[in-house]
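Milestone 3.1: sequence recovery, worked example.
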């Protein structure tokens, strides 16, 4: 991805990629200008890995679709993603189905939505979002 100028979609779902692999992927996303869709379903994403990807989202201008379905992302990771959404202006779809969102994480995402103008689809299906989180999204 560092030097590839043609790849548009990358599906790494169910690969169990370790944190070091996600960190390398995040570094590549910081310079890649062609990848539009990244599927990371059910890879066992840690807070550290989510934070690395969030850092990449802060500078990446090509990624439009990001899928985290089935990764239980700890609060620190969700917080980092929400922070990235505040500055990213290319992401259009974010799939956070079955990611174990907490009230705090949902509140942070809701705050990011107030600032972000590019996100068109945010899928939170399968999360047991507490009332405080639902209120923040309303």
């Amino acid at each position: 991805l560092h030097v590839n100028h043609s790849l548009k979609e990358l599906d790494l779902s169910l690969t169990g990629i370790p944190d070091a692999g996600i960190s390398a992927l995040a570094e590549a996303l910081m310079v890649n200008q062609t990848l539009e869709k990244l599927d990371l379903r059910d890879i066992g994403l840690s807070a550290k890995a989510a934070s690395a990807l969030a850092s990449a989202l802060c500078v990446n201008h090509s990624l439009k679709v990001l899928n985290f379905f089935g990764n239980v992302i700890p609060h620190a990771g969700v917080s980092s993603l929400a922070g990235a959404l505040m500055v990213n202006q290319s992401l259009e779809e974010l799939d956070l189905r079955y990611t174990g969102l907490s009230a705090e994480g949902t509140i942070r995402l809701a705050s990011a939505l107030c600032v972000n103008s590019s996100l068109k689809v945010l899928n939170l299906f399968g999360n047991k979002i507490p009332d405080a989180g639902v209120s923040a999204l309303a």
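The longest strand covers residues 9-11. The mean pLDDT is 95.
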